[in-house]
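COMPLEX REQUEST
Ligand: tetrahydrodeoxyuridine
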Amino acid sequence: MTDLDLIDAARQAASYSYSPYSNFAVGAALRFADGTVVTGTNIENASYGLALCAETVAVSKAMADGVRGGLEAVAVTGPGDMPITPCGRCRQVLNELAQLGGTDPVILCVGPDEVRRTTLSALLPDAFGPASLT
Ligand code: THU
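STATUS: Structure written out below.
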């Protein structure tokens, strides 16, 4: 699974977005060390503040299936004019899974004309995580 395939998987996930309130369909795709890909999309609610972000849905799907590490790359797609970066809460949620497996995943922030390639540690420096509680 190449980075472009991962981006395609995120775009595909975004096609299932339930975002009637924002009309802002986001897709996320997580790639793990064993090649597994888990996707998510944003799920909104009539009680607006309860919206679930695409990245958080993807991490929840993976962890609910028993995954606890090996997160190597994350692609995030959105409909806007600029590469979409994970929101603060999603950075923290991604960090939990990444730290459990001791990885610093590449984050592919996808825009219409460019893919901004960064890392989770760059997006969330000095992260609070599982190790912080010991
Ligand atoms: N959203 C995501 O799914 N991920 C992010 O990282 C940023 C925002 C969603 C939440 C909401 O459904 C819509 O985008 C507009 O904020």
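REMARKS: The chain has one domain: 3-121. Strands lie at 27-32, 37-41, 71-77, 106-110, 115-119.
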